[in-house]
């Protein structure tokens, strides 16, 4: 199967499809359209400083955030290509307040796509890594038209999830429930080539990733947890703090090196008591990836993959990474503290 350039993502998808007897190729067609979108977004991101695509559009999105031109470009690119895929019945995007229906003339399909077209967009002008996050669900309702419940499905219902990372190289990391595979774009041939066949997160690490600038807005359990991680102890490593401010980049480092990323609930904005990150197109897909890599993802109180969504842009607190650090966080968030050494 591998050629002289290695295994392409399309060959990998087809081999996965072959393992699903009766697969029609619909999913492969859907993912290939998404991959093409990401290649085009990667091209624009990599030359953003040279063309008039930095800066703001002047509008604000449903999140109340100023929309950057590259946010809008990535959103529009994915919507247009997905409409042509004929495999979706509806989409949900961070950049659109409402579900995105298929055009009246377009053939509809059995899948639902939720996506963050450009994650970490506040970093674009500073040439810091950014990404695209996607989550694919199967339509649950009868008939060709979608119901809101087709979008508001808990994470364990996902059929696939992953992300594209536009960094020093452009990568694609995804899972369909059979482990996690990573691909690196070779721009000379325009193909994503298998570079990380079976990603497994270390059981624990030495890095925590959180915006400690919000320390005073965090609750007592959050502060106690991070205080424990950062303080030296006889049987624990000295942790470093790494925070890029692009979820995809912070998550990808955590996935490969181990440790923990958290964006906890905070009191800095009463309109967002559950933190900033969105369940359906940021937390759920990354939770699927991390669990498939042997890690864990929690709100502090429950498994992210079991949160029952109530609305499209719902926010949840998230603690995600190595199983040992996430389990320890859940102890702290249950009000329990580790016994002092030697006690
Ligand atoms: P987006 O650019 O899609 O709105 O996501 C930004 C998110 C996420 O990428 C990152 O983890 C977080 O914002 C950083 O938020 P703070 O600046 O509040 O730390
Ligand atoms: Mn985001
Ligand atoms: Mn975004």
Topology:
Blueprint (H helix, E strand, L loop, with lengths): L8 H11 L6 H21 L9 E5 L5 E3 H17 L2 E6 L6 E2 L9 E9 L10 E9 L9 H4 L8 E7 L3 E6 L4 E7 L4 E6 L10 E3 L10 H11 L9 E2 L5 H11 L2 E4 L15 H14 L3 E3 L19 E4 L1 H11 L10
Parallel strand pairs: 3-5, 11-12, 11-13
Antiparallel strand pairs: 1-2, 3-4, 5-6, 6-7, 7-8, 8-9, 9-10, 13-15, 14-15
The structure holds 2,5-anhydro-1,6-di-O-phosphono-D-glucitol and manganese (II) ion (MN) (2 copies).
In words, what does this structure look like?
The protein has 343 residues and is an alpha+beta fold. It folds into two domains: 2-196, Fructose-1,6-Bisphosphatase, Chain A, domain 1 (2-Layer Sandwich), CATH 3.30.540; 207-341, D-Maltodextrin-Binding Protein, domain 2. The protein is 29% helix and 22% strand. It contains eight helices and 15 strands. The chain has an eight-stranded mixed beta sheet with strand order 4-3-5-6-7-8-9-10, sandwiched between helices. Strands 12-11-13-15-14 form a five-stranded mixed beta sheet, with helices on both faces. Strands 1-2 form a two-stranded antiparallel ribbon. Helix 1 (9-19) packs antiparallel against helix 2 (26-46), helix 2 runs antiparallel to helix 3 (69-85) and helix 5 (220-230) crosses helix 8 (323-333). It is globular and about 65 Å long. The mean pLDDT is 92. 2,5-anhydro-1,6-di-O-phosphono-D-glucitol binds at residues 94, 116, 119-122, 211, 245-247, 263, 276.
